[in-house]
Amino acid sequence: MPVEMSAREAYGRTLVELGRENRDIVVLDADLSRSTMTSLFAREFPDRFFNCGIAEQNMMGIAAGLAASGKTVFASTFAVFATSRCFDQLRMSIAQPQLNVKIVACHGGITVGEDSFSHHSIEDLALTTSLPGLTVIVPADAIETAQAVKAAAATSGPCYIRLGRPKTPLVYAEDYRFTPGQAVTMRPGSDATIIAIGIMVALALEAAESLASQGIDCRVLNMPTLKPIDRDAIVQAASETGAIVTAEEHLEHGGLGSRVSQIVSRYRPVPMSFVAVKDTYAQSGKPHELLKRYGLAAEDIERAVQSVIPRKLSDQAHR
Amino acid sequence: MPVEMSAREAYGRTLVELGRENRDIVVLDADLSRSTMTSLFAREFPDRFFNCGIAEQNMMGIAAGLAASGKTVFASTFAVFATSRCFDQLRMSIAQPQLNVKIVACHGGITVGEDSFSHHSIEDLALTTSLPGLTVIVPADAIETAQAVKAAAATSGPCYIRLGRPKTPLVYAEDYRFTPGQAVTMRPGSDATIIAIGIMVALALEAAESLASQGIDCRVLNMPTLKPIDRDAIVQAASETGAIVTAEEHLEHGGLGSRVSQIVSRYRPVPMSFVAVKDTYAQSGKPHELLKRYGLAAEDIERAVQSVIPRKLSDQAHR
Amino acid sequence: METGSSQSKGTSRAASAANISAEAFASSRPGEELSLEDMEQMARKLRRHIVTMTAKAGSGHPGGSLSAVEVVTALYFGLMRHDPANPNWPDRDRFVLSKGHAAPLLYAALAECGYFPVEELSTLRQIDSRLQGHTDRTTTPGVEMSAGALGQGLSFGIGIALAGRLDFQPYRVHVLLGDGECDEGQVWEAVMAAAHFKTDNLVAIVDHNKQQLDGWTRDIMNLEPLAPKWRSFDWHVIEIDGHDLPQVIAALETAKQVKGQPTVIIAHTTKGKGVSFMENNPEFHGRAATAEELEKALAELA
Amino acid sequence: METGSSQSKGTSRAASAANISAEAFASSRPGEELSLEDMEQMARKLRRHIVTMTAKAGSGHPGGSLSAVEVVTALYFGLMRHDPANPNWPDRDRFVLSKGHAAPLLYAALAECGYFPVEELSTLRQIDSRLQGHTDRTTTPGVEMSAGALGQGLSFGIGIALAGRLDFQPYRVHVLLGDGECDEGQVWEAVMAAAHFKTDNLVAIVDHNKQQLDGWTRDIMNLEPLAPKWRSFDWHVIEIDGHDLPQVIAALETAKQVKGQPTVIIAHTTKGKGVSFMENNPEFHGRAATAEELEKALAELA
Ligand SMILES: Cc1ncc(C[n+]2csc(CCOP(=O)(O)OP(=O)(O)O)c2C)c(N)n1
Ligand SMILES: Cc1ncc(C[n+]2csc(CCOP(=O)(O)OP(=O)(O)O)c2C)c(N)n1
Ligand SMILES: [Mg+2]
Ligand SMILES: [Mg+2]
To answer: Is the shortest distance between the CB of C154 and ligand 1 below 6 Å?
Structure first.
């Protein structure tokens, strides 16, 4: 296994594996099969692959009809087109009827880079978590991606899996096993907790490393299943560390940060800080430039932790 | 003025007034003009009214093109079709380019009633607040609706205004003046704060009334501008009352509740409780039956306040 | 696949539904062999159900339900192989109601077929009823698709058709669309894709009642000429009088013979058909009859 | 409205851009009066800009930029009245790039017209550049629409056209679409609506290069026959060789004469046109030339 790999490459390879095992797997794409890597499946199983052209709404409807007829359907395109462009189809044709469609979208977030705001997906998690009945997963690396895709195929029901574009560092070893709905403690710690998803997990670990050298002992949680979320892990982190920072490649509102803050506000109020895209569209640029520009670098996580710790409540006891 | 009036009726009448004052106002609808009440404008200004048929995406694009050519455009349909159905058009054609389009959507929430889940809009606020640059307004009654529509027409830039279907009680007198971005204290109080939007404001007042008789002194805030939200009023309420309940005719996640909880978590952690549609689609039924069934009745707000007060933190001081 | 048992299943339902020659359904013999009179009577019965249940509910969409009565009658009581005792029978022919607001019509047909008791129709739109205001796949036996947001059914139908082809299933897929619904771009995405995928097991039926919600389609969003549009997307087009049962049946039979391309049946109809004061009256697109109006309507439909 | 000053404004730009008879633009005389040779040369120059700036950026979409060079040249250096010194001049003719990934082409044309310095082209796709990866109305002078999500431009164009009609503005609106882009349902919603609203000041141009991202349109999602589709939606259809400047100009001139319906120009083109190894090569839909390839390309475009 290399040190870096793109999640979508892992997706493409896993699909082929699954296709060999299960004849009921059907794959759809919307004229982006070379980017989403469904082209690997298409090459091996041309009969079970349907390119729907640049018509995402129709693709989701076709996916639903196939699923209603017993197929396990994977439908792929860029995250922004898989959600923004066909939200009503996800709602009506897939989520509410609980059909067995796995929407696996690549090019999530702003590390899409130079293609600029039309191709950046910074609202897909707000959208998909607004669909009762839809499971939402954001793997942290290529290894977790392969696991999540397999887990999704093994479970009936609709699911959204968000992948990134670039090659990113692996945070897991080959033997890692993903469990839907469970947070993963990437690093223990008691002074504060960083809860991260996607590519931000690697950056959170980097930040925690640096904070450790300053004597700050940070817990790092990976929260691959954004919905249903691991409430217990969040409440525990709030209780045990008294401060939480969330980190996500998404708008500040509507994604991980707001989900965690609602749980914290309800069960265990503690000060929080949010590492996310502030309320703005991102511009063109290299992925690492954009992460920096929009406040998503490891240093931003570090600063967020530093700022939240002094705000810890002197008394966390409930009346 | 009657005691009850539907927000959409106020909208239709206000549009006609505005149309008389400003020749640059153009109104679009998507085959629902008799429900949205844009039919009143259409009757008086047929040249400046375009019915786009059942094609919401195209309507939003046309709205954008008109606005890019100097028009002040009102585009109306049901909330779910104005957002879910054409989110990408709102994003690309309207919000990012900051065009002067006012999306005024009626039939927000579940009080749409018998038409069932396809017509209930429980995610529109999550969607619209995910659009950087878009102002989001949820008036509390017909009087605030008229005010908000006028305010929107008087300001350049994109705006989403969410109205309900049924006639609802008026919470304001005729002389009320809406100020964009400002919360309105509907009732002072110090034991807890209820922050409500839309038709939940009237129910919050009802709940506060009942709580008062039990010796609980509840502040009630109306938060008509959901975005940009009145952060100061929220932080003040957290500081002064130590507990917050939000009430909205929307999914628990992505709307008022999560927005408030993120602000509270960042600036002034206090226990919260959320009166909202839990993660589910609502079924057919009479509006009041649905409010009750899905936990949005005045008693639900009352119970939420009762449950949150004992959880108030014994020490709200920051270290 | 249970092709062997499929015929008996299909016919057993049909036989119970009305006194119609059983083999006609399982074979692909044309509909004229059926007892037309029974079908006509069933159509009238469905109309009575429609106006009654919406009046009882106090809301709903009678207009667009009434215009498609003959189409749905021909499908459920004629052409389609299906099994009310086993709504999920994999071999069943499919009916997808894309114009989900015509739910009362579908509920009436399903009830008369025996998917659920006819009495249940009176619970339409009530809280906890299985008969939701718009069709809901998760609650109503026999309903294939959750609908109500227009424009999505044809895509769904393509998916079912492709699955049938992958599994060598002989079933056919029928999708009923409104004419106003054809304003939706997704419909044209699906029209293009169905031709591209050559789903000849798919039939679209446009309930061409010339009205949408706000009025006449020619005023709101002109669709005409409709047939050339579908033809230019490489569909086989059949135009019929959608209230003439023999024409409906013949068109559906013809569609079965068309190979290599999907078929659309443009059914010219009248919105509100059968109730004089509802016919071509946009008001009754989305409003139910009052008690008084109901009485008049039922008298006309007696 | 400043109709009086519009002619001089329009021509001043044109005169500075190339040595072309000034009156030709402001009047509606056909394009053959222009110096074709200068336009041909401009087209070659735009091609050089396209391959160079994308190579410099290390990413971008040369293929679909190169296929529409003649169309954009004819518009910006011929037919359109516009004023680079005043990009928001209300009377200007509009160009809406619906296929926003062809941004390099539009940027090249705008720069050569003088909307911004030609040197700025080398900042394409860099952080803080005004030249974003896809067109952005808020950052680039002369860009009418933020695009990049396909399918939205024709609707936008209808809005501009309707505003022009409401204000008795004489401007015309041109929308450039990809052929793959025509898969999007919103395009057909707009096609239907433009005909319904009879926006004869609107011209759609389809860059019919027969390829989309994954390959040939006939394999991915067949669009053929394309002209009958637009015709069935009641558009005036003109088919041309999109690399033949006189044909492009003549088509645009003809469109001006068409009343009561919008016009579509189906421009048959070659993706990657002008660079041998990019022509009809799907790889160069979305990848830039390497340094070595750039050298070869520029040699061919010398
Ligand atoms: C996406 C969407 N937009 C708007 C509506 C509201 N609506 C319900 S029915 C209707 C008119 C439908 O007209 P048509 O398809 O001709 O149906 P019919 O005449 O058969 O009733 C409209 C606009 C909807 N249900 N879905
Ligand atoms: C809504 C949407 N879906 C997918 C894409 C990704 N995409 C960018 S260009 C392209 C192919 C476009 O083909 P065509 O319109 O023929 O353009 P051209 O051949 O002129 O480059 C695709 C699928 C997109 N930009 N927008
Ligand atoms: Mg109709
Ligand atoms: Mg092309």
So the answer is: no
